């Protein structure tokens, strides 16, 4: 089996390494515009590197044509274009990027080209969606979903108490993008950084949460549910600072004049945050809690999925990279081996509704030390 990974940054590089470790994979081509990212991957067995950009469409599609499976790990603003490029090449793709663009728009085209597109297949959206999908056959009716997720530094540095573990542009999007939720059975759009609250997690302590636009395809897959939200976790006080920056217009995209220069506030703020978000050591934590409520045989129940993952000191891999890369690679292998039968856009939650496929994903995650636990209880009130 030959694999192609497009985008080899913090997460994409771990997708490359993980696929290269797989016995059934004969080669992994790593494609990226950044030469430094590629140089870091050259020492690994079975890995070939190619400097390429989305603009070089013909060259990229040639690489896709030589691969059995494509994994996409580009920033959200260009990830959608990569999926379209793969479909045009007639190649199946498992992609981790998140964009406001609707992936179901590509369903008809993907089916016509006999390929499979698994969009938004990282940790959240991605693994979080799979948890929701797994819960569906276990309930007579699903009524409420809450997803809590956050990548956190193990040693937070004030005042922001956050360290960058994936694309900075995508992090800023969490503070600026309108949030899609389902409330009282109706789809709504609310302000980012709203819905602020606090909760405690064993081994970590008190964290704050706020609404973010990370449900992905879930609102389309389960439109009749009564309530559905994704909430991002941070150390207390972080959301207030980000909300102040947003309120002051420092994330604005309309250019302004400063002396004789024309600048975009968001770009300036983002670059300043790059330094602030790089403070401290790289050791991180990934916290994921998915709570699904519903009814079973006339009784109200809650299925809770929990994941706490930490930095891999031996291989110097962040928890965020691990928990984003491994769901992607696990699904990619299922697709490449012909175990996902449906063509077109196939969501992570749809895959996890199949107990056999979900079982294989969980088993492979466990071999990587990513241990998702499940508990069924009565709903909390």
List descriptors.
single chain, 381 residues, alpha/beta, Rossmann fold, Dihydrodipicolinate Reductase, domain 2, 2 domains, 13 helices, 28% strand
Model description:
The chain has about 375 residues and is α/β, with parallel strands linked by helices. The chain has 2 domains: about 1-120, NAD(P)-binding Rossmann-like Domain (Rossmann fold); about 125-320 and about 370-375, Dihydrodipicolinate Reductase, domain 2 (2-Layer Sandwich), CATH 3.30.360.10. Helices cover about 30% and strands about 30% of the residues. The chain has 13 helices and 18 strands. The chain has helices at about 10-20, 35-40, 55-65, 75-90, 105-110, 125-135, 170-175, 220, 240-245, 265-275, 320-335, 350, 355-365, and strands spanning about 1-5, 25-30, 45-50, 70, 95, 115-120, 140-155, 180-185, 185-190, 195-200, 205-210, 225-235, 255-260, 260-265, 285-295, 300-310, 345, 375. It has a 7-stranded parallel β-sheet with strand order 3-2-1-4-5-6-17, sandwiched between helices. The longest helix has 18 residues, at about 320-335. It is globular, with a radius of gyration of 20 Å. The termini are far apart. The mean pLDDT is about 95.
Walk me through the topology.
Elements: E1 2-6, H1 12-21, E2 27-32, H2 35-39, E3 47-51, H3 57-65, E4 69-72, H4 76-88, E5 93-95, H5 107-112, E6 116-118, H6 127-135, E7 141-153, H7 168-176, E8 179-183, E9 186-190, E10 197-201, E11 205-211, H8 218-221, E12 227-234, H9 238-247, E13 256-258, E14 261-263, H10 265-276, E15 284-296, E16 299-310, H11 319-336, E17 344-345, H12 348-352, H13 355-367, E18 373-377
Parallel strand pairs: 1-2, 1-4, 2-3, 4-5, 5-6, 6-17, 7-12
Antiparallel strand pairs: 7-15, 8-9, 10-11, 11-12, 13-14, 15-16, 16-18
Helix pairs in contact: 1-11, 11-13
